[in-house]
Design goal:
Blueprint: E1 23-26, E2 33-35, H1 37-40, E3 44-45, E4 53-55, E5 58-60, H2 68-75, H3 81-84, E6 88-89, H4 93-104, H5 108-115, H6 119-127, H7 134-144, E7 149-150, H8 154-159, H9 168-171
Antiparallel strand pairs: 1-2, 1-3, 4-5, 6-7
Helix pairs in contact: 5-6
InterPro entries: Cro/C1-type_HTH (IPR001387), Lambda_DNA-bd_dom_sf (IPR010982), MJ0586 (IPR004451)
Protein name: Transcriptional regulator, XRE family
GO molecular function, one term: DNA binding
């Protein structure tokens, strides 16, 4: 007598019995889990990993082309702060801000009013206690007509008389026929 035992799967999140196969979902960086339709709304659905296809005893690696929605999700990824950084802020930004402000005849209060910022922020910039954010830097540069961003490369420093070390390319001489 053979007995057929039906194995039912349960939602790994809420524990309800799955009527169909369920969905493979990743919730907030956790490993993907099989959940019911209700719990699937809490995360993003992921593709189930496929078993490698066997061909003459050797595994064949197949890749699936990305769907347009997956490609757009990767292209529209959330940008982090390093994507916005264009260069380094100059070391003498307090002096540049203060001298440009005085040259325009503004008080710290006037400049704060024009830029729609706090007067305390302007004071902190000029004392060097706080560097301006990207948005604040752009406002200051536009209003005061100064440049607070150092976008020069190391090559510029070498040309300006900086210290350069000997490289392998400096030692080798290429002989051509």
């Amino acid at each position: 007598m053979s007995e057929y035992i039906m194995q039912t799967e349960y939602c790994e999140l809420c524990g309800v019995a799955l009527s169909k196969k369920g969905k493979l979902v990743q919730i907030e960086g956790a490993k993907p889990m099989r959940v019911c339709d209700k719990c699937a709304k809490l995360g993003t659905e992921v593709q189930a990993p496929r078993a490698p296809v066997q061909s003459f005893g050797r595994p064949v690696i197949t890749t699936k082309a990305k769907s347009p929605s997956q490609a757009s999700q990767q292209a529209n990824r959330k940008r982090d702060m390093f994507d916005f950084i264009e260069g380094d802020i100059v070391e003498d930004y307090p002096q540049r801000i203060a001298s440009a402000r005085l040259a325009k005849g503004y008080t710290q209060k006037d400049l704060a009013f024009i830029l729609k910022m706090q007067e305390g922020d302007i004071k902190k910039f000029e004392r060097g206690e706080r560097a301006p954010t990207e948005a604040e830097r752009k406002k200051l540069e536009k209003e005061l007509g100064i440049v607070l961003l150092d976008v020069s490369d190391d090559d510029d420093k070498l040309q300006a008389g900086g210290v350069a070390s000997t490289t392998l390319g400096d030692v080798l001489q290429v002989k051509r026929k």
